[in-house]
Amino acid sequence: MPPRFGPAFQDELAALLEWRRDVRHFRSDPLDEDTVAELLATAQFAPSVGNSQPWRFVRVRSAELREQLALHADAEVARAGSSMSEERRTAYSVLKLHGMREAAEVIAVFCDDATAFGSGLGAATMPETRRYSVVLAIHTLWLAARAKGLGLGWVSVVAPGHVESVLGVSPDWRLIALLCLGHPLEPDDRPELERRGWQSRLDWRANVSER
Amino acid sequence: MPPRFGPAFQDELAALLEWRRDVRHFRSDPLDEDTVAELLATAQFAPSVGNSQPWRFVRVRSAELREQLALHADAEVARAGSSMSEERRTAYSVLKLHGMREAAEVIAVFCDDATAFGSGLGAATMPETRRYSVVLAIHTLWLAARAKGLGLGWVSVVAPGHVESVLGVSPDWRLIALLCLGHPLEPDDRPELERRGWQSRLDWRANVSER
């Protein structure tokens, strides 16, 4: 029989979903291997189109490759800033956008666009649903990590082709996210982008309409 | 202070993530409005690139529009089947791919690719992260619904442009998913695609490598 979830669990889940946070400030102490394995296994219970399981996780263990990726992200962060208005640039300059040098783990997540798994089911009209499936796996990992008190940050200020080439992955693999995973440096409350006045949260009703 | 989650919650969360299921068999009795509102609000606690919140939820309340979408999905399901090998077609023909005629709610979810929210932060090199943010909101809704004993099914056998035109949304909006939400007809255990021999689950280690 499938599990049944009571009101206490539902409330705690809502608290997790509401507070989740993207973490960019990490301590550097390592995670134990069992925890990393458990999280990578849990992530793969995510739904995927046609059950194609197109997610490919690459743990970046090499310090040299990690530094190459961090330098690339630094350069892209600077480049994005240089095209902003002066007012925006001031707000931008105080944001920390990645914790790739400190986090215990850097994990690159790819979509195998050419997987034969799932035989194309559900992807005929929307092939992008393969990549969306990988996003679902990342979110699954994210929530499981946060429930364990760990931090996760999604770095997107990188050029996918560059990351694919640094890590030497198959030409069929497309970068979906570069993740930092580790012990958070400080307790998080409000999102950094809200706290620092970058972008506040809308009332949820603003994004709902009817037909 | 941020919430702390104990081992009992972590175990129950793991059970939810593992069992979650894509639901295609629904009863037709309605959901109460408070539940729908709560789920649509919870979904919007999802992370989004630059806090851009680009998700746009459209509840399809009109029976006529719903039937137009169901007919379109039926046609696309048939079309996808016609290009399959005979062996695959037999397996395919017994799959139920959507519950759009029965589910209490049909909700189309779009990404506003042109939103000014978030001022482009994090989307300079990977503009697709806006659409990925919408996927994160859908997954958030999915988990919250499942924890309440409700079913959710993601329909992707539709042509996005057709759905956008039937629902008359802004030209900047791109369809990410058509969702069925309601009371599941039967308890689910294993995924329908596994149960019916379409595609089994891989060992998680197969999708993890190191550099």
Brief account:
The structure is a homodimer of 211-residue chains. The first copy, chain A, has helices at residues 7-19, 33-43, 63-82, 86-93, 129-147, 160-167, 192-195; strands spanning 55-59, 105-112, 151-155, 173-182, 208-210.
Can you describe this structure?
By secondary structure, chain A is α+β, with helices and mostly antiparallel strands. Helix content of chain A is 39%, strand content 15%. Chain A has helices at 7-19, 33-43, 63-82, 86-93, 129-147, 160-167, 192-195, and strands at 55-59, 105-112, 151-155, 173-182, 208-210. The first copy, chain A, is globular. The termini of chain A are far apart. β1 of chain A pairs parallel with β5 (208-210) of chain B, so a sheet runs across the interface.
Spatially, the strands of the biggest sheet of chain A line up as: 1-2-4-3
Beta-strand share of residues of chain A: 5-15%
- Radius of gyration of chain A in whole Å, from Cα? 18 Å
Compressed to H and E, one letter per element, the order of chain A equals HHEHHEHEHEHE
Output the number of helix runs of chain A: 7
Estimate percent helicity of chain A: 25-40%
The pLDDT mean of chain A sits at 92
> How would you describe the oligomerization state of the chains in this entry?
homodimer
Major β-sheet profile of chain A: 4 strands, antiparallel
Q: Count the beta strands of chain A.
A: 5
Rough shape of chain A?
A: globular
**Most extensive protein-chain contact, per-chain counts:** A-B, 101 and 101 residues
As residue ranges, the low-confidence spans of chain A are: none
Q: SS-based structural class of chain A?
A: alpha+beta
The end-to-end distance of chain A, rounded to whole angstroms, is 37 Å
